[in-house]
Amino acid sequence: MRGSIAGIEDGIIGTAQFRPSYHGLLLELIDYLYASLVVAPLVVCYWRGTWNLMGEYIYPSDLTTSLVVSLAIGIVGHIVFNIFQATLRQYLNADRHRIAYYLGSRLYTVIYGVVCVNGWRGGWQLIDLYTTHDVLYVVLITLGCLFILACLKGVRNVMGTPFLIINDSRREYFDVPTYFKLTGSKDPGLYVLDCMFSVLVIGSLVVFVWRGLWVLLDLKLFPEDHGTSAWASIIIGYGVTGVTFSLQPLMRWTCDRLTGFWRVVVADLFLFFSFIGTINVWRGIWQALDTYFLPDDPLLSNWITHGAALLLLILLNCSNSVLVRGVYIDAEEPAGQCVVFPVYYIRLFFQKERKKKQRRLFDALERADLNSTGGVLQDKKHHHSLQTSAQPPAQQKEQQKEAHQHHIAADQNHQVIRNLEAVPLTIIDDPKSNGDHSSQPTRK
Asked: Which residues cross the membrane (predicted)?
């Protein structure tokens, strides 16, 4: 899955992960609906528009040259963005130059999005150009590539929206995880090789798997009627998506009780089932746009879907959902978290509000603690003066009672502050899109 939930899921659900509240379940449902009905269609619109525009403007009269150029743009662009991610983080820092960061980061998404689409378009259509569409051949190639991905523990990299939302997190905006998780500062040579392996091997296998299943649907799902085929894919896709989200608690419970090889196998089977939903949603929306959205003016249709979708995603703060970047390892998260999809949007908003409230409460209790401590010290001083002054016994007793109450209040404030300090104030400060990376497919 282009997007891991390592480091996110525990924070979101916390100790209530097996006793979710109705409020939490409602927010989770809203996130799923938002990912499926808002983010996924916008991402598909962007990819469809950009894909077709590349065909219009990159050597439109020479298909082979057009595809080779697209593939070169994709490969070189991916490797460059992989290698220079640390440099981008250093110079586009939101804490130091907020405006420069915002403009630079969105320009990064615009350029990287075109790179991703070109890489997929070039590889995908070159395969179409030089291979047959025989069903048996397509099935064997697809299964072979899927098997290699499984051996490399990389099946999750075929995943995409609606099973993830990549929020535009300031902290991880430019992060592109590689397969071996090397860093350029320690061994630049090996890091470059790691980047190349991630792009050329894992990326190519993912394209083969996506293309294989897409072509099979083209061949077998109402091939004579594009409109009916599109609607059939949409129905199948959203049906599988709904079932997958519903099965997530059961699969998490199962993976919590499995270890080693069998946990990876079960997780991969579940992720592949969700992938069937993903590719049907993508194909259905894509083909419906081709069939119904300005079919008599395809250039305008492509520009609208490209520009409007990207603009809306930027405004919704999840534009990085259009990027296909990074490599993630199957079942790298602990226990059942390996089958939890990184779909967090509305819940992040409530988490941030909760963080603010906790911080305000913490500050108020600290002030109250200081006041109580001051009162205790003052009472002690006053109590000492009582011992040397001639006051009625009843008045001395009343003042001692007030001092005792100050002590109790101070102890209570200390205890509340200790409890707050023991609980993290944030659920996810900046969700590591732990992802940030959606495996956005493309079409033939």
From this structure: 29-49, 69-88, 100-120, 135-155, 190-210, 230-248, 260-283, 303-324
Q: What would the pLDDT profile of 222-268 be if each residue is shown by its tens digit?
A: 999 999 999 999 999 999 999 999 999 999 999 999 999 999 999 99
Would you say residue 387 lies in a domain? no
295-344 confidence digits (pLDDT tens): 999 999 999 999 999 999 999 999 999 999 999 999 999 888 999 999 99
Token pair 């993912």 in the structure block, residue: 206
Domain hosting residue 36, numbered range: 28-351
Q: E strand or H helix at 85, and its extent?
A: helix 85-91
* Number of domains, the chain: 1
Between CA 370 and CA 377 the distance in angstroms is 11
pLDDT at 109 exceeding the cut of 90: yes
Task: List all residues 6 or more positions away from 328 whose beta carbon is below 8 Å from its beta carbon.
Answer: 1, 2, 3, 4, 154, 156, 157, 177, 435, 437
Report yes or no on 408 lying in a domain: no
Domain for residue 218, yes or no? yes
Buried b (16+ CB within 10 A) or exposed e, 60-99: eeeeeebbebbbebbbebbbebbbebeebeeebebeeeee
Neighbours of 366 (CB within 10 A): 13
What type of residue sits at position 148? I
**298, 229 Cβ separation under 8 angstroms:** no
pLDDT tens digit string along 132-169? 999 999 999 999 999 999 999 999 999 999 999 999 98
Sign of CA dihedral 145, 150, 153, 157: positive
pTM reported for the whole predicted model: 0.81
Domain-embedded: residue 15: no
Residue 199 to residue 196: CA distance in whole angstroms: 5
Residues 6 or more apart whose CB falls under 8 angstroms from that of 86 comprise 183, 184, 185
Distance CA 383, CA 395 (A): 11
The alpha carbon of 36 is separated from its chain's Cα centroid by a whole number of angstroms, namely 14
As a whole number of Å, the CA-based R_g of the chain is: 28
